[in-house]
Amino acid sequence: MRPLPSLALMATLAACSPAPEEVGLRNTEAPISSNASFDARRFADVWHVAATYGDEARCGPLAETWVLTGAATYRVTGTACGPRGARAFAAEARVTGPGRITRGDEELWVLWVDADYRVAVVGTPSGRFARVLSRTPRVRPDLMEAARRVLQFNGYDPAGLRAI
After folding, report:
1. Each residue's pLDDT expressed in tens, for the chain with a length of 164 residues
2. What distance in Å separates the CA atoms of residue 140 and residue 29, rounded to the nearest whole number?
3. 60 and 86 Cβ atoms separated by less than 8 Å
4. Quick check: 59 and 85 in contact, CB under 8 A?
């Protein structure tokens, strides 16, 4: 029979272990994929933030207007949730790959868009951000359920999603 390691030895070894990585809103070990058939022209127009994660839901109605300014570039304006509530913003964005859009210093992935471009799910591979966008302030229940399933498939916990 081998002796059990001492508590002091176990504590020393635990202290030498690297700290666990911040995961964010999604399990970063889960695969994630962007929409290969994404159409930049069809994505342009007004999107309401129908559901989101975290503190962003506290700001109430949020919306973004995506105006195509070139073959693969947008001017995005709208409202975002800041530390003191909703605030206006303007940003440039460009399509960098199928269903991948760089806005500022962040790459957003369009994980899913329904066939009629009524609802979209957007997230980041890092798991820092995810939301459900809709052309109207309210989402049909079947489309919201599809959006939740897409988030779950891509490693997000749908239980944390909050409707706005």
Report:
1. 545 444 343 343 333 433 334 348 899 999 999 999 999 999 999 999 999 998 888 888 999 999 999 999 999 999 988 888 899 999 999 999 999 999 988 899 999 999 999 999 999 999 998 999 999 999 999 999 999 999 999 999 989 999 98
2. 31
3. yes
4. yes
